[in-house]
Amino acid sequence: MMAERGVSVDHSTVHRWTIKLLPVLEKAFRHRKRPVGKSWRMDDTYIRVKGEWCYLYRAVDRDGNTIDFLLRAHRDKTAAWRYFEKSIAQNGVPETVTIDKSGANLAALETINADLDAPIEIRQSKYLNNLVEQDHRAIKRRTRPMLGFKTFRCARILLAGIENMHMIAKGQMKCARGTHPSAAGQFYDLAI
Is residue 39 part of a domain? Predict the structure, then answer.
């Protein structure tokens, strides 16, 4: 786009702009995100950061809408608990959560259930999680051709941008009544 306008820009400049502006866009998107359903499918996937495997926790609802995401360095009860706390704070308490056979996710949900009046129903089935497994593919498709993430901070910010654009493409952003802008139009509305 910049070359079409006669402006020469290095890729590192675009990277710096991205690191600076994506947190602002993510905050603006959070305020305009549509509500999600009460039946969640949660799973984690692997992302390589500086040669080490990190874990991207993600969840979608019954309709395939992204609930939330969180990049963590470790895959344990604390990481899963932090993910669920963040998701519940932003989206409300779900009725059911479907997870795979991960003991860390189960332990985190049981800890959260201990503090709730109406506990969350926990379902453990790898086959019921196919929806979130398929949704991982969109994120992996974007991260695979990249040259890799050099720092955890940059990985967290860039993955948030990728996730937000994925949610915009799915139509998860509130728009003016009666309008159905394209993903580019929604992004433009978000940036202004």
Answer: yes
